[in-house]
Amino acid sequence: MDKQAILQIMDGARSDAKANMRAIVEQLFADFVELHGDRVAGDDEAIIAGFATIDQRKVAVIATNKGQELKERLVTHFGSPTPQGYRKALRVMKIAQAMHAPIITLINTPGAYPDADAEKAGQGQVLAQNISEMLQLKVPLLSIIIGEAGSGGALALACSDQVWMLEYSMYTVLSPEGFASIMWKDAKLSHEAAAQMHIEPDFLKEQGVVEQILPETVLENQCQPLQELIIQQLKLFDKTNLNQLLQQRRDRFRRF
Amino acid sequence: MALTPHNFVRHPQKALATYHHNVPSGIFRYCNKCGAKFYFRRAGKFQLCPECGYGFRVTARQRLKMLTKDFQEWDADLVTQNPLDFPNYDEKLKKAQSKTKLQDAVLTGLADLDGQTAALGIMDPYFIMGSLGTANGERITRLFEKATAQKLPVVLFTASGGARMQEGIASLMQMAKISQAVNEHRQAGLLYIAVIMDPTTGGVTASFASQADIILAEPQALLGFAGQRVIEQTINKKLPADFQSVENVYQNGFIDAIVPRTEQVAKLGQLLTIFAAAGWEGEQ
């Protein structure tokens, strides 16, 4: 893959236009009601979670939020959730399961927040629990990678039946900077790292990591094209029974 | 010959150099936790620092010898296909394979632990830092699947630097794949005990190491998600060296017990015996 294409993906994934996830949520789900708190230790603004209807059907919505202005970005740690955020996400997913509501996660995060407090609160343990629980949820799950999807912090919101990504978004084992820093001890070699890691969505689709690559235009026109794709997918989910759903989710991850 | 400062210094240095050559390397060992220096044999069968009791990192096969003589290996020949065609990765694998006598960074099989039969897995910190890739990920998945099919408990010794960078996104997917196998094992009503070894980090902490019913740990082992250097860069502050020690993680509530190597077999045997006993069946 040439350098220009890599740059286009990285810049596209990290563009400011995508940082305002709240706007995307509100455009997709007109009657969205946000819920707060993990019922254990606090609330985390890096995760927006709540319920809405789309095409007259109830859904749970979980989205990571980078925020628009610096002040908001500091609060959300540039879209890196803390354990409180992941616990809130799981709490809302459990409500969705009880209420038979499909779950839609919208992802744009460099990864789980790596500070000392998150570590003490069990960031690794919380991610492990979310992964484990998501794989067992008895409702359909659709994940859409809007910008960045970095490492375990993204996987803990993407153990889903369908995972889609935008044309200029990236889903990686670690950020290209982190990868370059581990492999070559130089974070500045991020473009080389990105090329070596194969961040291009086509590769991920080939590997079966994602089902669909969406053109960037799905965010245009108040996200209406994306809304239509979600409605179509919800109708497809209706044609699956619970056993098929769980079996297919199992097979989806078993093949790696 | 007149004794000048020049030849006075030079002569003993030469002698010292000769003397050094005659001492075989590896005779003295250095403890990376407490700094003690000691004659290597004092580490003994369990490879412990005689001063602070820290258990040195050992290969999976060495670890197995500390646990049982009765072991039947599973899936020994699983090997990675190098999914990203990563440069120099094949050579790195070959080196790790000859160092550890394993095809990838885990050893699995059927074991007798203090009289109890269990599916046993041991990760190998000497195989590319015990990193999680497609081959050891598959082997751990099969460990749980075989244990589920044969109705056995799983005991898994974890050590890992996290996801295997050279295998990219496929490494990340192993976390979900193994978690699924852990779920099915639990749904079958079977026990899973993890033993945290030094170091257990990254994607392994964020998946199966933390999903065990019971989590034991070795003294002074490191358990964490993010690397200490990354955390320090995030908060712009130095952290104490033992920030992620299992002793601290235990205080935070994420570990059931810290068990030294000398007592692990007995403790595992005790737990496995309790859970092998009859439970509540209810009226039939």
Automatic annotation (TrEMBL), chain A:
Q: Which GO terms describe its molecular function?
A: transferase activity
Q: Would I find Lipid biosynthesis among this entry's keywords?
A: yes
InterPro entries cross-referenced by the UniProt entry: Acetyl_CoA_COase_a_su (IPR001095), ClpP/crotonase-like_dom_sf (IPR029045), COA_CT_C (IPR011763)
EC assignment: the record states 2.1.3.15
Q: Which reaction does it catalyse?
A: N(6)-carboxybiotinyl-L-lysyl-[protein] + acetyl-CoA = N(6)-biotinyl-L-lysyl-[protein] + malonyl-CoA
- One protein family per Pfam: ACCA
Q: Which UniProt keywords apply?
A: ATP-binding, Fatty acid biosynthesis, Fatty acid metabolism, Lipid biosynthesis, Lipid metabolism, Nucleotide-binding, Transferase
What is its pathway?
Answer: Lipid metabolism; malonyl-CoA biosynthesis; malonyl-CoA from acetyl-CoA: step 1/1
Q: Where is the CoA carboxyltransferase C-terminal domain?
A: 1-236
Taxonomically, which superkingdom?
Answer: Bacteria
NCBIfam families linked to this entry: AccA_sub
Q: What is this protein called?
A: acetyl-CoA carboxytransferase
UniProtKB/TrEMBL annotation, chain B:
Q: In which pathway does it act?
A: Lipid metabolism; malonyl-CoA biosynthesis; malonyl-CoA from acetyl-CoA: step 1/1
* One annotated GO molecular function: transferase activity
Q: How is the cofactor bound?
A: Binds 1 zinc ion per subunit.
Cellular location(s):
Cytoplasm
Task: State the source organism's domain of life.
Answer: Bacteria
Decide whether keyword Lipid biosynthesis is in the record: yes
S-adenosyl-L-methionine: present as a keyword of the record?
A: no
Q: What is this protein called?
A: Acetyl-coenzyme A carboxylase carboxyl transferase subunit beta
